[in-house]
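Duplicate of earlier report; tRNA N6-adenosine threonylcarbamoyltransferase input re-posted below.
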Amino acid sequence: ELVLGLESSCDETAAAILRADGTILAEAVLSQLAEHTPYGGVVPEIAARSHLAHLPALVRRVLDQAGTTPAGLAAVAATAGPGLIGGLIVGATLGKGIAIAQGIPYLAINHLEGHALTPRLPGVHPGGLAFPYLLLLLSGGHCQCVLVEGVGRHRRLGTTLDDAVGEAFDKSAKLLGLPWPGGPHLERLAATGDAKRFTLPRPLLGRAGCDFSFSGLKTAVANIVAKGLDPQGRADLAAGFQAAVSATLADRAAHALAMAPGATALVVSGGVAANQGIRTALAGVAARAGLPLVAPPIRLCTDNAVMIAWAGIERLRAGLTEPLDHAPRPRWPLGELVAAG
Ligand code: ATP
Ligand code: MG
Ligand code: FE
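Output:
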């Protein structure tokens, strides 16, 4: 009852093997960061070629680590979207190949559902996490607020109207002269700054619903930078930016919780969930609603294959396998998933 998970939708090449009960037997992630850094962002063609070069060896490695062979697998789960099509084809095709060779089910996993179901992985939340729960997915490519109601059943309550939150961090960090990807660098700089020095906009604060907007914030940062800043000024601006984002996310999350009265928890995931200021703000929101804040360990918040294998296990249990002619989807909203009965 071993499930192999493959992730290749963006700039992480990853493979993992889980037991059907959720025990992680092996996991490996290769970041392509160094390959894309010279270009200041992910280059799709480079990403696809890198997945092609590294994913098969990574599968070999996790099989060895788990002490098994392809014959020991019960199913293969591969990210089939959303993401960069070249990378998706690499992972999906390798996954299908293994499934054909072994005569086992192929599971086409929506990357966002991978993020969404990860908090249900045994050990992440004491006693396990029951549906429905509210997920804030905060990453470089996504900023969404989703009510996770069941396997394949996700209701998007809000999304960003412009930049994703990680993108906003990265763009503002770039304006502050920090290396790409700037999120962690900006957080470190903010630690030495005074958040009250600059008044920055708090987009959509208090507005109904749970949509997000960050481009105005970025513009405000650009305008302040353009006037010239000393080192302390840069730190103050970083702190002000982080405070504005934290306050905005907290406000949006509070609105979303009001839209989801049955929610059992507030869950935060995605690379931006690493940010302590944001976590603290969201913990306050959850506490005021009488709910736990659940944040998977960072390595399971950022792109990984454990989440793909786990989503595969949840779908396999629900009988939701995919035929071998399933085509990867570069765009694949959470609302368009196949759900159980
Ligand atoms: P996606 O998962 O949506 O396809 P991605 O690969 O960019 O996109 P992740 O790997 O989950 O997403 O997250 C990366 C993003 O998280 C980057 O924008 C990065 O700057 C941001 N990030 C990482 N650590 C921090 C931090 N401590 N504070 C703020 N942002 C951070
Ligand atoms: Mg990434
Ligand atoms: Fe992701």
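The longest helix spans residues 231-259.

Merging into the original ticket.
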